[in-house]
Amino acid sequence: MQDFLRSLPKVELHLHIEGSLEPELMFELAERNGIELPYLSVDEAKAAYQFKDLQGFLNLYYQGMSVLCLEQDFYDLAMDYFKRASREGVVHIDMHFDPQAHLQRGVSLDVVMSGLLRAKQEAEQSLDLSVGMIMAFLRDRPAEEALQVLEQAAPYWDKLDAIGLDSAERDHPPSKFVALFERAKELGLARVAHAGEEGPASYIIEALDLLDVCRIDHGIRCLESDDVVERLYQQQTVLTVCPLSNVSLKVVDELASHPLPALLDKGLNVTISSDDPAYFGGGLLDNHIACAQAFGWDEEAFQALNRNAMKEAFTSEPRRQELL
Ligand code: HPA
Ligand code: ZN
After folding, report:
1. I want to staple 132 with a disulfide (CB 3.0 to 4.6 A). Which of 15, 143, 161, 267 is the partner?
2. Residue 167 near ligand 1, beta carbon < 6 Å
3. Which fold has domain 2-323?
4. Annotated catalytic sites, by residue?
């Protein structure tokens, strides 16, 4: 099964590129940029990756990305992940990135965008990999700031596929970002949002009704409401479910009790992703292998999940046809 899963062409719809920063590269960049880390070694960093909840993770996630300063750093971050993912049989990645987290530290949008776009272009030429760009906004920061950043990104609008909404979910409902998502729609950008990870099922409905999203990132708490499940079923909205992330952030107790099988039983449009592979114990292949072990799914089940993802990936029609 592991060999099959490795060679299966896989599609990643939910990946935060800053969450792909492995401790080894984090140390290298810290040294390059003269930044002090709160860890003495790679092992010490890895040992610190034990999270109580989403906020506990976010604290280390924002701290980790403080080593990203120059265009080359963003290029190295993305290229490092693209190569690793490609070796694991990943053929497409829709990549979230968090401009506000960098702007706040005095790193310009041009630095972030040119590094990431250079890596994307090179990966698309040299690896069998396509990359979608999702500019994500931090829901625990002011809505006005998000709108300003989207306007500031005007030179890059044509390079973006979508906007997303991430960071601390509780008490930051989708309704806070109606104006941002309306503007993105006006610009012809697709829209996705994290909802129903730590936040309630009602945030999923808000994201669909008020933000007009085409995907729900995570969404697993939909099972707390029959109405929400019915809505997701009727619309066949894609859910980008991240099993190892959910275990790491204690959204579920263990993989064996993860609601993935229940979501599939309800006929929902489920896909599997890795979220923040450097922090949650592995990339897309590891997530597949863990699911095979926990749920005993057969080869067809994994093919179907990746077909779901390929249909929705932010890529050109010829590339989609090539992948399907
Ligand atoms: N949830 C919300 N925000 C995030 C995550 C996540 O899992 N990873 C990076 N930002
Ligand atoms: Zn996420």
Report:
1. 161
2. yes
3. TIM Barrel (3.20.20)
4. 197
